[in-house]
Amino acid sequence: xxxxxxxxxxxxxxxxxxxxxxxxxxxxxxxxxxxxxxxxxxxxxxxxxxxxxxxxxxxxxxxxxxxxxxxxxxxxxxxxxxxxxxxxxxxxxxxxxxxxxxxxxxxxxxxxxxxxxxxxxxxxxxxxxxxxxxxxxxxxxxx
Length: 143
Description:
Blueprint: E1 16-22, H1 24-30, E2 37-41, E3 57-59, E4 65-72, E5 79-85, E6 94-97, E7 104-109, E8 117-126, E9 133-134, E10 139-142
Parallel strand pairs: 1-4, 3-10
Antiparallel strand pairs: 1-2, 4-7, 5-8, 6-7, 8-9, 8-10
């Protein structure tokens, strides 16, 4: 008796979430992000390093979907990502909003097969400050 093999179901690949935890009070007092930013992602098993620092190295490959979000270290503080400055040939982050809320996130897809190492900077909107504060040290996408 011959058996037919069932077609494999392809698993839906989750995006790599990159989370910035911001000490808003410290960053506002200092006027910069030095020592007030802690970066994490969900790809440690895939090779990402630098967790809890301002210089996260996120391991990526072509087709990976990236999702950036942020959290305030202090529950009563306001923080959001104003922009992600990165080479648009690598990926083009787009701002989105969760339905029914004013909570935003940024999403992009890696365009290159082996992107090498590409740094990016994040511009944060903090509290009631008009001008965003940009990261001094850069995190990177690593192929």
